[in-house]
Amino acid sequence: MSSVKVELRKDQIEKIHSFCDAFNNAHGELINVLHKTQSEFGYLPAEVQEVIADRMGLPVAKVFGVVTFYSFFTMIPKGEFPISICTGTACYVRGAENVLAEFKKQLNIEVGETSADGKFSLSCLRCVGACGLAPVVLVGDKTYGRVAPDDVKEIISEYGS
Amino acid sequence: MDQVKLIIDGKMVEVPAGTTVYKAAKVLGIDIPVLCYMDLKDLNIENKPGGCRICSVEIEGRRNLAPSCSTDVADGMVVKTNSMRVINARRTVMELILSDHPKDCLICAKSGNCDLQDMAIKLGIRDIPGQEYAEVSTYRLDTSPSIIREMDKCIMCRRCETMCNDFQTVGALNAVNRGFHAVVAPAFEMNLEHSPCTYCGQCVAVCPTGALTEVDHTPKVIQALSDPTKTVVVQTAPAVRAALGEEFGLEPGTRVTGKMVTALKNLGFDYVFDTDFAADLTIMEEGTELLDRLTKHLNGDKDVQLPILTSCCPGWVNFFEYHFSEMKDIPSTARSPQQMFGSIAKSYFAEQIGVDRKEMVVVSIMPCLAKKYECQRDEFKVDSNPDVDYSITTRELAHLIKQANMDLVNMEDNEFDAPLGESTGAGVIFGATGGVIEAATRTAYELHTGKTLESVDFKQLRGLEGIRSASVDFDGLEIKIGIAHGLGNARKLLEDIKAGNSQYHAIEIMACPGGCIGGGGQPLHHGDSSILKARTKAIYAEDEGKVLRKSHENPYIIKLYEEFLGNPMSEKAHQLLHTHYFERKKKVFEV
Amino acid sequence: MSKYSMHLLVCGGTGCKASESDILTEKLKKELAKQGLEETVQVIMTGCFGFCEKGPIVKVMPDNTFYTQVKPSDAEEIVEEHVIKGRRINRLLYKDPKSKEEVEDTGKMGFYKKQLRIALRNCGFIDPESIDEYIARDGYMALGKVLTEMTPEATIALMKDSGLRGRGGAGFPAGLKWELARNNASEKKYVVCNADEGDPGAFMDRSILEGDPHSVLESMAIIGHCIGADEGYIYIRAEYPLAIARLKTALQQARDYGLLGDNILGTGFNFDIGLKYGAGAFVCGEETALIHSMEGDRGEPTLKPPFPAEKGYLGKPTNVNNVETLANVPPILLKGAEWFSSIGTEKSKGTKVFALAGQINNVGLIEVPMGTTLREVIFEIGGGIKDGKKFKAVQTGGPSGGCLTEKHLDTPIDYENLVANGSMMGSGGMIVMDEDDCMVSIAKYYLDFTVEESCGKCAPCRIGNKRLHELLERICEGKGEEADLDRLRNLGEVIKDTSLCGLGQSSPNPVLSTLDNFMDEYQSHVVDKKCTAGVCKDLLEYFILEDNCVGCTACARACPVGAITGERKELHVVNPVTCIKCGACMEKCKFDAVILR
């Protein structure tokens, strides 16, 4: 998993410590701690995982093993406007693949990547439960339904690119 | 325990409830093939993730095949281990595993000693359908001072993970990623050097493929041997002689000390010495340090802490430097026998024979991978010239001997060279768990009490229990001794010390199961712990056969102090035979 | 509900919210306030109505009017016309696709007519953020009954008699599961709700949690009483923020009402529930993997036995049921085993919720009695195939299920029948496919999912599914050989036979079932190198239609490899051998004469 090098400030380290402590540093709460930390930092770079491991008394390799197991956790910062394409079955049979291809083409990034200007990141998710609107695209919290490849350019332009 | 009757391949067998199908089949002489499964029962290590599915069998009434390694027997169970359904499944799964494995067996370090290769041969795999368009996992090669990780060859048996986490509690390795990309790796898939790895090599010792192997130093040794300007000195660790024979088809536990000496001489080493000599020297230093600290402590000196911990095991040293660096003052400062040997060889002995240390090459034969790292540490170098140049394992020595067309089995016996080849029984038992502390006790007792021991055998210190404790009566003074082998067991004793609950005066710690005889550089035991027991027996037999069994009685040791070092713990001894420790835990990205 | 004379129920399910139903709700409230009606008319944001195809939905009670595709801009008209003047707004009513007539209320809609809502009984009827509304519809009565009138043994016996089976996949009898957990003696036991819905086309658990969270809490407390546990956890996908928020609200309300916590209803029974979050791993739907994930580990499954009922969370006996199963429990306890077992088929009792999607007119969440046929579901409830296309297949059970075809349409849906036909119930995804769907591509799609979601622990699933996917990819690219079809089958069967957990044991189902039912499609991909549905791009050819071609030569000039020949004002022809499929000709043609086929 590729990562980004960061230098943590003291207050950030203390924040992470407080998350770990809030869960009593119990090993069974690792996933909850990771959730909490990712919601604060937006992603889980290696340095953050080290702080967590150290505080909770876990091997870093174990924390990394858990982070890389779950697709919700990421070591790369998401874009300012994270774009998620639903590739659940209902969206797939209604053409989500073509929509995804168009986003890749327009943004010139692959799934899991963030555009060079940090504006957009692209990811896939499985079924958001809006199958009536298939295919569905999410930009941040906003949902776009019945998206066709032709709509992609317009959606991106809404965010000023 | 309740007995259970079942039928395997048409034959009735009765076994205790809770037995696995795999073990029940063994009772009938049916050897179900296994790959990921590993059972080191005497050490309480069992690895059965049910991951490889090679051991699948058909159980009547079940929809799917079952992994025999982790399926318990039940009364009336009818098992087939060789139906066509089983054979087809086993072959297909094996083809799948091989489809994601390199086919460079010819130049693989594990070739001829590889569980995966054996299985491919057993199942007669000749073709991998679809190989030409199958994606094959590739990973960056990781070369550390001791261990090479070539994870393209990993089959996810998880044995290394079990050893590193459950047994050693080192936590360097963990399964990472998911699905086809899942692999065992250090944090952030960085190199082992950036991890808490102690180089104990237990991962290498259990790896069924060529994914984890030792760094091969034999080419460098050959180079040194073929250089006429170099004086090449070799030392052999005690545990090597108890296991080397296995590489040549001898029964585990066959001692080949004399044959090994002959082989080394035939290979062209100028001096064939024994690490056991340095082990005797270690006892002189460490034993004296123990008595010194003990006396001061008993006299109420608050600056002197007990227990004293042994420091001969480099895996263990790496472990406490990483995980317990705040306690780095507790272990003995005595260098390990390998390093004491190198230091004396390149000073005292080099002077004696009039060779400049730069022209002398010291090679060590070790059962250990951490020794490779240890001899490269900066504190064991003089003007960047290392005291020990190359450390090779028992396995590497076997390769060297085989390369040289030597028939070890039928070789005549020879004696080690003098002066650094002479040793007592105390030196040889360093190879087994409890041996170092027993050797130290033999000497410390006599030095402390001024009396001669009636029996030198301290049987209460021997055994394969992970943590053992014993008391020795030092003429009215009760000395409490703790012994641990395996770093997970060591951790428990250290946690006690940290919490102030330790009762011991002295503790011996060895990183590997059974001590050095189960080292990461030994012939592979393939999960059979009876091999470890046989090696231990051989070590104690060698001790019993010795005339001298106490380190301080070694005449060459006495001479060394008289001629060169002065007394144990003298300034010269400190300079040449002692060391200090560092905090090793750093942030991954600062390294 | 007495205070108000009228209620406007606005669907707050994820699908409708995505179409601005939350803004609509605010607009309605504002309009009512403007008219001074906020004291007499209540706007309630409910859980999912199920009819997602036509969302956002607004239902007016008590007259049962059902408005579809309501926009925030319609709020004013609804208040002025319907609320004040009592006139229905015809243009917002659902129109029957066949009769083209407006349908006023749900009882007359084909979508609802054949449905029977037990698990979804409260979804779309109550405000999920109000415990009072839940209680008003008999909520927590079952818990009260169990705690005060019934022994745990009697409760379990009743559940066993009802025939309720696990709705998460394999269909293990729920009562029996409880009994096993009860019989394993331990000081500490746990009740776990599996809400890690990961099937890529299913959202029934989400809808229940969003629409009726208390029913899950109530059932968990009941199970706690039955098996002797005082602690429960809901393991829920972190990707379900709305469901999490509603659960948190519901938990607090239940504690405030003394329905969770210590000494529940004064009976001395203690039980409380915590939340644990999943983090995006489909395999965690498997109970042992779920438990490892709850323990903070990688969600890798382990071999059963030991079952969670013996050794589960933190090594203690643990009962795991999924959301839909739990939602069935209170009505069964209140109405009795006989009532429940009278619904459904011989071995599959009660109802099943399906997420109906794909090429179908009425996409949505439905609940039907077991034994309903696929035909009824697809053509009556689902309103048939979109755009009048021809039905080809229906996929049930998600990545673990299989594709059923025309010949299975009259098969009553239950656990046994689906398995017998090479599919399975799974969690209840039901995706309908038409003539334009390529079944090889569909199988590839599911394998793509499995490859991504395999945990990697056992070799057959880790490597085998990857190889299956590679084979399917080659077939779709036209590189397949006939021998590959045999390999697909053998590989698929061995993966099923040898994989460690349910994921691997069912992952080849989409391949095996399409091989069984659509062998001709595989054959045409492999032998004729054709994709009859026109999906596999590598197998399509550029072709010029005689009727449309005017001989302008634009295509021939655009072709970079000279694959198009033809005289001016005469029909042009593509040479498929030299064509590199760049598509330049199609782009240049102004007469839609160039097609892919």
Characterize the structure shown.
The complex is a heterotrimer of chains A (161), B (591) and C (597). With 161 residues, chain A is of the alpha+beta class. Chain A has 2 domains: 10-67, no CATH class; 81-158, 3-Layer(aba) Sandwich (Glutaredoxin), CATH 3.40.30. Chain A is 42% helix and 11% strand. Chain A is built from 7 helices and 4 strands, in the order H-H-H-H-E-H-H-E-E-E-H. In chain A, strands 2-1-3-4 form a 4-stranded mixed sheet, covered by helices on one side. In chain A, helix 2 (30-41) packs antiparallel against helix 3 and helix 3 (46-56) packs across helix 4 (60-67). Chain B has 19 helices and 22 strands. In chain B, a hairpin with a 3-residue loop joins strand 8 and strand 9 (147-149). In chain B, helix 9 packs across helix 11 and helix 9 packs across helix 15 (435-449). The longest helix of chain B is centred in the middle third of the chain and has 24 residues, at 275-298. Chain B is globular. Chain C has 597 residues and is α/β, with parallel strands linked by helices. Chain C has 5 domains: 6-108, Glutaredoxin; 131-340, Rossmann fold; 351-434, Ubiquitin-like (UB roll) (Roll), CATH 3.10.20.600; 439-526, de novo design (two linked rop proteins) (Up-down Bundle); 541-596, Alpha-Beta Plaits (2-Layer Sandwich). Helices cover 39% and strands 16% of the residues of chain C. A 5-stranded mixed sheet of chain C has the order 9-10-8-7-11, sandwiched between helices. Chain C has a 5-stranded mixed sheet with strand order 13-12-16-14-15. Chain C has a 4-stranded mixed sheet with strand order 2-1-3-4, covered by helices on one side. In chain C, helix 9 runs parallel beside helix 11. The mean pLDDT of chain C is 92. Chains in contact: A-B, A-C, B-C.
Work out the count of structural domains of chain A.
2
Strand order of the largest sheet of chain A: 2-1-3-4
* Computed structural class of chain B: alpha/beta
Radius of gyration of chain B: 25 Å
The largest pleated sheet of chain A is described as:
4 strands, mixed
Number of strands of chain A: 4
Overall pLDDT of chain A: 90
Please provide the ordered H/E string of secondary-structure elements of chain A. HHHHEHHEEEH
**How many helices of chain A?**
7
Report the span from N to C terminus of chain A: 28 Å
CATH-scheme architecture of the largest domain in chain B: 3-Layer(aba) Sandwich
